[in-house]
TrEMBL record, chains A, B:
Entries under Pfam families matching the protein: S-Me-THD_C, S-Me-THD_N
Name of this chain's protein: DUF917 domain-containing protein
SUPFAM superfamilies the UniProt entry points to: CV3147-like
InterPro entries the record matches: S-Me-THD-like_C, S-Me-THD_C_sf, S-Me-THD_N, S-Me-THD_N_sf
Domain of life: Bacteria
Domain S-Me-THD-like C-terminal: 168-360
Domain named S-Me-THD N-terminal: residues: 8-164
């Protein structure tokens, strides 16, 4: 169902998007401030349901690309997202009828809203990851046959680059990552332009609504002094994600982090509050794999989310610090993200791990 | 005067272009083989004099970009130059009426000929350097106000990238260099698209003719058992370059060379045949500055050319090796390359040297 999204929804949406960002996707806080600032004068925007778009609509996904460690410090000028949209429009000779997030996690839940405020376009309620992933080709759009090219990248000085690698999305990622590094580590992009029919066939549905519900659930639970994780589990159970497991509760004892190859990469170690157990999370922008005492407890594409143990606010990989007290969750992904095509694009082996994917609800029975 | 250029001219042209390449610009040998191969079936091409083009012609310069150390090993597929031409044509919605070399030195004297064979376009007799330089903004086109953007880069797998940095050519160089490295170290490019009027205002004239004359002079001198350097000095004296000086004769005793940041960079040391003097040449793709026993004898934009002492064949920076016996020449540049605007773009200080430009004929009086 389509709906209007206003300023009062932005805090909840950003909180939910940070959960779905699984530590990455860029801190939505910055994006929220940008949207709020523009929305104050432009008013609410339309979030359109996937079932209500036309088959021959022309949908242009818009996002930020880069290492979150850079993106939190390097503010966009604010004009780049629409410039990226206009660059692919010009390149293809078509005019967008809507935009859509490429990932509903992190700052990329917010960037399309900014474009909507600035252009009047509606935002389609869905995305290509149902979470956040580090690389451009790691999308259901790609897994189900939509090419990423042509893509446009725009830098803070208005530099505009259009990349076309045909059907080779990994090559596109390789080139775009290099360009993003040359642009200072972050860029705004338009890619995976699609018809309405292609969006309907390949997108994860209603993930903006989901982010909003997750953010609202956590806030309302806090306000009602209920346990937020219990409330969150109830919300998740009513969606395609279905399963939530508490993987670990403990304190951050070590963080190794480097910004390398255009990604924020590293490992975080957590010591249990109750036992001698240790959790180790490996991340590349997002949390990819979690191991408790050497045993794998959750892997991509299932979601690993680190929440502050006290207030349940999500903690991003670039925000991890020694001594933080955390509740670490594993959340299942929708079935469309667990097919062989999807796992080939963004299962653990696509990230170089030898581990095979096993659903979190099977790894940790209730 | 316009003329037809045929297969029999290619060897002389390549030899002359290697002299004007001042050690860089990529070895023209590879380009010559590519042109020869295509020209065998397509026949001669038209080299059109700058005075014979129309003001509103649309001229697209085409070149290879990258470190010569890479370019000599990474053969182009052969379809990239025309693909780069088509990419800027499509981006701008205009059709080229001619192409022109960006540099008359090295392989880039040959790439436009390949495009001419493949498309039937004429090649304008001129270029934007009158020699070879390592960076994109180091052109008379730029020094006299033509922007480099939009530029297209094409990789060997057909990857096509269009870069637009407005009037900021140094930013264009920075991004394009990064893209070229991601493409494996070499790419084919189209940039500095111009009207006929702009070409007439900014290009160095008749440099293809010059390369041809230089190559022919060296060959004919060898065939007639005359000293090639004397013959070359006579040819140069009849052009805008005017001055030729023998900077040094000696043997290569040391070469430091690394491919770094997308360039072949380093230093070569030569020991004199007759005395204890040493010549040191510093290069970045091209030879930039020459010092004899610590005293500067020649700098960019004047040309430093290393010729084999025995047969006077030019030696490129990537071809330098211990024990080579060489005659090292300094050749003046045309007055249009010695103006304040030109020296700001490609004088010694544009390369980070503290030394100011002084013409080679003043540094070494006859």
């Amino acid at each position: 169902m389509s709906f209007e999204l206003g300023i009062d929804d932005l805090n909840d949406l950003a909180r939910g998007a940070a959960v779905l960002g699984t530590g990455g996707g860029g801190d939505p806080h910055v994006g929220r401030l940008m949207v709020e600032n523009v929305m104050r004068s432009t008013g609410p925007i339309t979030i359109v349901d996937i079932d209500e778009i036309d088959d021959d609509d022309f949908i242009v996904p818009i996002a930020q690309m880069g290492a979150p460690t850079v993106a939190v410090e390097k503010m966009p000028a604010g004009t780049e997202p629409v410039a990226a949209l206009r660059a692919v429009e010009r390149h293809l000779g078509r005019t967008a009828t809507a935009t859509i997030p490429v990932e509903c996690g992190g700052i990329n839940s917010m960037i399309p809203l900014l474009v909507a405020c600035q252009t009047g376009l509606p935002v389609v309620d869905g995305d290509g990851m149902g979470r956040a992933f580090p690389e451009l080709q790691m999308k259901t759009f790609a897994a189900y046959g939509v090419p990423g090219s042509p893509m446009a990248l725009v830098g803070e000085r208005g530099e505009t680059i259009v990349v076309d690698t045909g059907s080779d999305d990994k090559r596109m990622e390789w080139l775009a990552r290099g360009i993003t590094m040359r642009l200072g580590g972050a860029a705004l992009i338009a890619e995976f332009t699609m018809t309405g029919a292609q969006v309907r066939r390949t997108a994860i549905r209603r993930t903006l609504t989901l982010a909003l519900r997750i953010g609202r659930t956590l806030r309302e639970a806090r306000e009602a002094h209920e346990p937020p994780v219990t409330a969150l589990a109830r919300t998740i159970a009513g969606t395609d994600y279905r399963h939530l497991r508490v993987l670990f509760t403990g304190k951050v004892t070590d963080v190794e982090r480097r910004t390398d190859g255009g990604f924020a990469q590293g490992r975080a170690t957590f010591a249990s509050f109750e036992s001698k157990s240790e959790l180790r999370l490996t991340f590349r922008n997002e949390f990819l794999i979690g191991e408790v005492d050497g045993e794998v407890v959750c892997t991509v594409p299932d979601l690993i989310c680190v929440l502050d143990a006290d207030n349940c606010e999500p903690i991003t990989t670039e925000g991890l610090a020694y001594g933080q007290r955390a509740t670490v969750l594993g959340i299942g992904t929708p079935p469309v993200m667990r097919t062989p095509e999807a796992l080939a694009a963004f299962g653990p082996q696509a990230f170089g791990f030898t581990e095979s994917f096993q659903p979190v609800e099977e790894r940790i029975p209730c």
